[in-house]
Amino acid sequence: xxxxxxxxxxxxxxxxxxxxxxxxxxxxxxxxxxxxxxxxxxxxxxxxxxxxxxxxxxxxxxxxxxxxxxxxxxxxxxxxxxxxxxxxxxxxxxxxxxxxxxxxxxxxxxxxxxxxxxxxxxxxxxxxxxxxxxxxxxxxxxxxxxxxxxxxxxxxxxxxxxxxxxxxxxxxxxxxxxxxxxxxxxxxxxxxxxxxxxxxxxxxxxxxxxxxxxxxxxxxxxxxxxxxxxxxxxxxxxxxxxxxxxxxxxxxxxxxxxxxxxxxxxxxxxxxxxxxxxxxxxxxxxxxxxxxxxxxxxxxxxxxxxxxxxxxxxxxxxxxxxxxxxxxxxxxxxxxxxxxxxxxxxxxxxxxxxxxxxxxxxxxxxxxxxxxxxxxxxxxxxxxxxxxxxxxxxxxxxxxxxxxxxxxxxxxxxxxxxxxxxxxxxxxxxxxxxxxxxxxxxxxxxxxxxxxxxx
Length: 455
Description:
Blueprint lengths: L9 H13 L21 E4 L4 E2 L16 E8 L23 E2 L5 E11 L2 E2 L3 E8 L13 E3 L5 E2 L14 E8 L20 E2 L5 E10 L8 E7 L14 E3 L7 E2 L14 E8 L20 E2 L5 E10 L8 E7 L16 E12 L2 E4 L5 E6 L12 E6 L5 E2 L6 E6 L9 E13 L4 E16 L1
């Protein structure tokens, strides 16, 4: 805190300075200034990760000295674990520090004092409490990469990649969820199971599975799964539950999942295990809604719109893979949106035919048949629905190689040529894209010319 000071001769010295600079006699305004008064503002409550803005604007300073006032903020108390000090304040101890800011680094109460000073004196300290709490967002567990180990040698897992959106201090809970049949280990054999880097000493060859859940003191994360492979040359298989989807009113029921992207580096045959990880609120579906949860592409019968999350694991006969999740969002019935057709860029065909003259009469061969590729693959559906394609042309002159594919060849049949003159035709090809109920049409133009030239 700044020491209190007051110079009774200050007004007289200021007047003499003005006389010496301007040559004019100072005017006595008759204003008598009292000491300033500090007001540190109202107490604050913010979430960790947010910025605290202090407010000393309600402090009072004499009008004649307002430009000389200094606002000095200090931390009187910080939470346990915080490294905050006055260097964390923006523009500290300057006349621009009426409203400094700082970013808390731990939850708890920060007590700050404000003292205001000017040439007339110094205020008493006023205090403000900034309470920092954890936010509502759950943390994320990260148990690190899968590891390999050796029997009777300590293996260490790494959960330091776990995080909290608000930066809260994390609590760790590790569990040994599975071990080889030859092992006698369980979760009690995990050393430092409440820390970020627990360890285990495997007692036999095989695969060990651990899960990590972290908490910010309010919310818990979803579990993250890691594996320890001991004494085996077998590689871990990899599960691939397919791409996440957003489906509109055209969602199939049963919904068909796709785990064909799963693989095993050793080429071992895979066993598939699908489970329902999460269903929308109000849904009554269970794992029983799979027609065959051991198939790579099972069907799943859903009951209401919303977000479904499915989990896939694969087994190579020795080791289960990490789980892979896929999310499928199904809109409520009746919310289907129209697809957007895109027939691609306009096309140009220029053909020439050989011509010969006999008795001043020209005869020309036909311009040969020509084709261009039309590409409608940029067509989209906002709901992610499967699209059906139909190419057409009103004169029926064009011949489409694949009229029901997104990409097709459009062929212009051979055309008669005239010597020295280019005959032109313009064809308009239409692309109709359709989901189960809605459709859209886009067109592409093909400018065709055929000219006879001397052979």
